[in-house]
Amino acid sequence: LASGQTPFIVKLPFEAKGLYAYLFTNDHCNQAGLYEIGLETIASETKLPESSLPELFSLLEPKVKWYPDYNLVWVKNFIKRQSKSPKFLIAVAKSLATINNNGAIAELLEYNLRRYSISIPYPYTTSTVSIPSSAGADLVCSDKGDGVVKGKGESELAGISQLYEENIGQITPIVAERLKDIASHYPEGWFKEALGKAMGAGVRRLAYIESILERWKVEGFKTPKKGGEGGQRPGKGVRPKPTQERRRPITRIPGDKEPEG
C-alpha cells in the first residue's frame, strides 16, 4: 500500500479517491469534519460532474455520511486524525454550534465517544434531538442504549468527561464506560461536586469519586461521612484529635503532706 492509503482507499475508483481527499482538505471543512456544502460547490471546485457526485458519495460510505436534504457532509474519522487536546475539542464544539441539525450533531458526538472514546464538550440546547434516517423519517433517540439520545444526558456526559480529562487524566475506553454510567445514574452536577470533594482530600481517583456518589445516593446529597471520605487521612488544615493518655487514679491532692507512718 502507498503511504497513508488504507485498503478502503485503495479499492476506490480514481474519482472517489479525489472526492475523499477533497472532503478532508477543502476550505469549507471545519474542526468537526461536519459542515455544510452543496453539490454545485463540490463540482465547481473538484471539476467532477455534479451528476456523478451522489454515486461517488455512496462509494465513500461508511467513512463519509452525506445528508442530501441538508447539503451536509460528515467525514466520520476526521476528528480522530486531529489533535485531541482540550483546546481543539472546544474548537470542535464551537464549530458544531454553527450546524443547524441536532440529529447529525448527536450522531457525531455518540460515534466519537463510542468508537474512539473522544468526548466533545458540546451542550445541547434542546431536551431531545432527532436523527434523520436514510429513509427520510426522523428517529427519536434516547440514552438508554436503544438508539435514542437525550440532549441533557449527552451534555452531562460531555461535561463529566471534560472535568475528568482536565483534573484526573486521559479517558481510556474503560473509564469512558464508567463515566457514561455516572452520567446516567446520578443527577446533574453531582460528579462535579464529588470531584471537588475528592480533590479537597488530595485524591484524584475515579473509584474514590464513585464511592462518594454511591454514598450520596443512599444517604443523601453531600451527606458528610464520619472519619472523612473513604477513610483517608485528614487533609491540610485539619488537625487530628489528640489521643488522650490513660491516667492513674488520684489518691491525694497535690501539695498535701505524705501521711505519717
TrEMBL record:
InterPro entries: DnaB/C_C, DnaD-like_sf. Residues 220-261 are annotated as: Disordered. Pfam families: DnaB_2. Residues 162-225 form the DnaB/C C-terminal domain. Residues 242-261 have a biased composition (Basic and acidic residues). This is DnaB/C C-terminal domain-containing protein. It comes from marine sediment metagenome.
